[in-house]
Amino acid sequence: MPFQKPQRTVERVFIHCSASDHPHHDDVDVMRRWHTDPKPQGRGWRDIGYHYFIRKTGRLEEGRPLEETPAAQAGHNTRTIAICVHGLENHRFTGHQFNALVKLCKEIDAAYESQVTFHGHREVSSKSCPVFDFARVLGLSEDGSMTQPPITDREDPVSPELERPVLRLTDRGDAVMILQILLNRHGANLLEDGIFGRGTFEAVIAYQVDKGLKPDGIVGPATWGSLG
Questions:
Q1: Radius of gyration of the chain (CA)
Q2: Of 104, 162, 157, 116, nearest to 8 (Cα)?
Q3: Cβ pair 17, 85 in contact under 8 A
């Protein structure tokens, strides 16, 4: 989805993290429910507070319409765009996410002819949000301008790709989600939910049989290596 400049005035872009690493929360619709559910379970807002949400896989999802002011930085929402990157722990953000963030911010910067600046939520809040080094990822100068090469143009990434541990039936987590994405690229039709259930198990078996691997349903180095 290429960035389409809204009619309203925009001067700043704020980067957020979602304060959760749970695979079930890696979805813009979950964030929307958190923000729109009545209090005290939710915030009672009319829509999600962010304009964009970036999943662990790097998938970019749209939230609140760009023509509307966000509800993400209390007291600092006017003339801004809000982007949320799913995650809580610094080491668990992925290169896919950073690539997607850089691409989106480059498009925004180009659309505004470098007249917008980029900031972290923590600059206007007591929260440590986002917890990753967003300025280094985006190549920001001290005033928030994109003047330096972003992380995707360098040889020193700030976050490795997700680890690929041995996976078995009943496992859960980000690595299972990556497994499901790779299996789907090879013809499976799995829900990318981060849960190694019966469907994922059977898809692993089918893949192993097709590739001449030991069909044990366990995803070890050989299966990971074959998936690519």
A1: 19
A2: 116
A3: yes
The torsion region of residue 85 among left (phi > 0), alpha (psi -120 to 50) and beta comes to: beta
Residue 182: give its domain's CATH number. 1.10.101.10
Rounded Cα–Cα distance for residues 141 and 146 (Å): 6
Q: Clarify whether residues 138 and 88 are in a common domain.
A: yes
Q: Which residues pair with 119 in a beta bridge?
A: 14
What are 76-124's pLDDT values in tens digits? Answer: 999 999 999 999 988 788 888 999 999 999 999 999 999 999 999 999 9
Q: In which domain, by residue range, is 28 found?
A: 12-153
Our count of domains for the chain comes to 2
Q: What angle do CA 53, 57, 60 make, to 5 degrees?
A: 30
Cα dist. 140→10, 83, 93, 110 in Å? Answer: 18, 16, 19, 15
